[in-house]
Amino acid sequence: MAKKFIFFTQSEMWLHDGTGIQELRSGFLEKYRRSTVEIEKRKEWKQSSDLKALRNIGVRTLPEAEGSGPPFRFMGGTFQQDEIVYAIKVENVGGMFRTGPGQKLEFEGHVAHYANVEFEGPHYQPQRDALAFSQKKAGWEEHIHLKKFQGNDSRQLTDGDSVDKFPKWDKDGENKIVYQTSGIARDGSGRYLGTTPWAINLIDLDKNEMDTVLSDQEHDYLAPIRHGGEIFFIRRPVAKPSSFSLGPVTDIFMLPIRIAGTLFHWMDFKSRQYQGKPLTGGDNPARNDLDLRQIEILGNLIKAGKRARKPGAKSRSLVPDSWQLVKQGKDGSLSVIRKGVIAFDIAVDGTVLYSTGDAVRWMGESGADEEVIQDAFVEKLFLD
Questions:
Q1: Measured distance CA(43)–CA(37) in Å, rounded
Q2: What is the CA angle 25-30-35, rounded to 5?
Q3: Can you give the pTM of this predicted structure?
Q4: Residues linked to residue 336 through DSSP beta bridges, in sequence order
Q5: Residue 345 in contact with residue 252, Cβ under 8 Å?
């Protein structure tokens, strides 16, 4: 199937043009890295002078470890005519930029970028020349925004105490957007306590109306796409706290460890609540945009992805079968299409492309699915 799509691994952006694969580099990231190097060089003179002074008075010093560059994370992408608009977060700076195959990094186009702002999940609608995306500023709230390139008109579509992500224009060209949303829970003093399970909302821009499509306390409903009046999404069970016990004697010996663990998690929660930072890992943008369940799951996925697979063995999903690609029909009925799915997209003609974390496949209308990428931890993908 000669269809183009962008896909993202943990720290790389790639284009599959229907025949081959090529990496797309970020001009903004390269410029940021060069600026960081220049800043570090300017610091070296002072640091070397200070170290020399310490050595002169007999103080032993150790060499500093080399840095790995600024932490960053790609936050999604979309095709805009012959170019690609991608979102990225580098340290505390978020932005959206235009690039394309063979384009020189210094000629990369600019859409938007700000400090202390995150952009995620951009999706372009060619008929309206408009870009939908989510934007997060300081605090916990994140909302859906719309940017029309004609006249450079921008507006916020959602508001309130919620986290709204991954907007998708209707695949048939209707003036509608679906997205995933989670409410923010707070205590009586207004302090952040957590979020509700992910639900799916639909915005009708012609009627200026918003409806909840799917919501319950047992499942997360993720990354929705509307095609042919039907809605496709990933459904996964909400993680439940473990009640595992080895018996009363073992429980007594484990009690101090559990108390210490509870104390640590309480302190970590307070650190996230008041400072927006965990006790471990620092303010790393590769972690901050994920909730605790996603952090744990992605950590397990990465470990699983490093396991060797026997030569010739079939690719298998790195997520459990409970992560299901589901379709909601026009009558509201739900049907499971595939299991063990971490990301997917749908072409205008209805063809489905999906990732199991270990492989990317085109869904076959009848018979076996066609595998197009193997042995790659693909966490996001977007069709032209």
A1: 10
A2: 170
A3: 0.78
A4: 326
A5: no
CA dist list (Å): 41 to 27, 45, 52, 60: 21, 7, 17, 23
User: Per the structure block, which two tokens stand in for 45?
Assistant: 């003179």
Would you say residue 248 has pLDDT above 90? no
C-alpha–C-alpha distance, residues 202 and 231, integer Å: 10
Taking CA 345 as the corner, what is the angle to CA 341 and CA 346, rounded to the nearest 5 degrees? 125
- Segment 82-88 mean pLDDT: 95
Sign for the pseudo-dihedral over CA of 244, 245, 250, 251: positive
Is the separation of the CB atoms in 113 and 29 below 8 Å? no
Rounded to 5 degrees, what angle do the CA atoms 5, 90, 28 make? 65
Which residues, 6 or more positions from 206, have their beta carbon under 8 angstroms from its beta carbon? 175
Neighbours of 140 (CB within 10 A): 16
Q: What is the pLDDT of residues 277-304, one digit of tens each?
A: 555 544 443 334 444 445 445 545 545 5
CA gap 216, 241 in Å, rounded = 18
CB-CB contact of 79 with 60 (8 Å):
no
Residue 67 token pair: 């840095």
- Residue recorded with tokens 């047992």: 218
Domains of the chain, each with CATH number or no CATH: 5-37+65-238+314-383 (2.120.10.30), 248-303 (no CATH)
- For residue 175, which amino acid is it? N
DSSP 269-292: HHHHHHHS--SSS-S-HHHHTS-H
284 vs 183, more confident: 183
Sign for the pseudo-dihedral over CA of 12, 16, 22, 28: negative
Per-residue pLDDT tens over the stretch 31-63: 999 988 776 666 665 566 665 665 666 555 444
Give the CB-side neighbour count of residue 3, counting CA atoms within 13 A.
Answer: 19
Mean pLDDT, to the nearest integer, of 263-281?
A: 55
Structure confidence by residue, pLDDT tens digits, 338-384:
999 999 999 999 999 999 988 999 998 777 899 999 888 899 999 99
